[in-house]
Design brief:
By secondary structure, the chain is an alpha+beta fold. The protein has a domain of 44 residues. The protein has a three-stranded antiparallel beta sheet with strand order 1-2-3. The protein is 18% helix and 26% strand. It contains one helix and three strands, in the order E-E-E-H. Keywords: Membrane, Transmembrane, Transmembrane helix. InterPro entries: DUF397. Pfam families: DUF397 (PF04149).
Amino acid sequence: MRTDLSTASWFKSSYSSPSQDCVEVAFLGGERVGVRDSKNPNGAALVFSSSAWGAFIAGVAGGAFDLR
């Protein structure tokens, strides 16, 4: 399935400086969230369901991906 991302409003974390490379996120509506590489804004993007994105964010906040 292809998703039109031409009108998406992409943003980076407030913890990122303007010159840092990181991921950008866009809430796409229809229960979808887009994620792309800020170094390549015209490249491929991943699209997740809102529930999958929420589970990822909860995992990050809970330390599930911390290196030990």
